[in-house]
Amino acid sequence: MSDQPLTEAEIELALSELPGWSHVGNHLEATWTFDGHLHALAAATAVGLLNERRNHHADLAINYDKLRVTTTTHSAGHQVSAKDTDLARAISDLLD
Amino acid sequence: MSDQPLTEAEIELALSELPGWSHVGNHLEATWTFDGHLHALAAATAVGLLNERRNHHADLAINYDKLRVTTTTHSAGHQVSAKDTDLARAISDLLD
After folding, report:
1. A78 vs A18: CA distance, rounded Å
2. d(CA B19, CA B30)
3. For residue B49, which residues of chain A lie inside 8 Å, CB to CB?
4. Between helices A8-15 and A82-95, what is the axis angle to 10°?
5. Residue A51 near chain B (CB below 8 Å)
6. Whole-angstrom Cα distance, residue B20 to residue A54?
7. N- or C-end of chain B: fewer Cβ atoms within 10 A?
8. Which of B38, B45, B51 minimises the CB distance to A52?
9. Which band of pLDDT confidence, cut at 50, 70 and 90, is reported for residue A96?
10. A7-49 pLDDT, tens per residue?
């Protein structure tokens, strides 16, 4: 999968099919709220397995019952690439 | 356990026995680097279990192989209390 930076138009098109995800600064981010801390931990572990499988590692922040996921492509100069939109899609498939 | 804010002197005394932990702003924080992403995820889950058991929930941030833990006491006006130093001690006992 290409790690070239996407254009703003390409990112907007991808986000139109990714409810909950936003393009903030140079990354994509989304936050989920779960039924308690342990559920948020389990969700983080599941997203981490997706990260590892794709060798593309979104950052994960757990705050009690919330999980915030942020993803950018370091090899694309810290811009959003298809690796990020693809990972976002897989995470939403898992968590939504 | 008291959720009264600790004095700066009390915090410094506690930190003298907590290598790796710092008093930053209104919280305590420490970062660990592990042997890869899955190890960092496992460590986050373990810390989360400590959080849950104490009903005092440190924030957890996973960035590839790193886990950053931050803890403050909301009921102490977002200051550091004995709940934080006690949790920090338990986390260090687990991860160090």
Report:
1. 21
2. 9
3. 38, 41
4. 10
5. yes
6. 32
7. C
8. B38
9. very high
10. 999 999 999 999 999 999 999 999 999 999 999 999 999 999 9
The 10s digit of each residue's pLDDT in B71-92 is: 999 988 889 999 999 999 999 9
CB atoms within 10 A of CB A95: 16
Q: Do A37 and B52 touch (CB under 8 A)?
A: yes
pLDDT for A85 equals 98
The first and second tokens of residue A52, run together, are 């590892």
| Residue located via tokens 């496992």 | B42
Q: What is the pairing mode between strands B66-71 and B27-33? A: antiparallel
Q: Give the number of residues written for chain B.
A: 96
Contact B37 A59 (CB under 8 A): no
Q: Do A52 and B37 touch (CB under 8 A)?
A: yes
Question: How far is it, in rounded angstroms, from Cα B91 to Cα A92?
Answer: 31
Question: Tell me: the pLDDT tens digits for A17-27?
Answer: 999 999 999 99
B38 closest CA partner among A5, A53, A87 = A53
Instruction: Give the C-alpha separation, A23 to A33, whole Å.
Output: 19
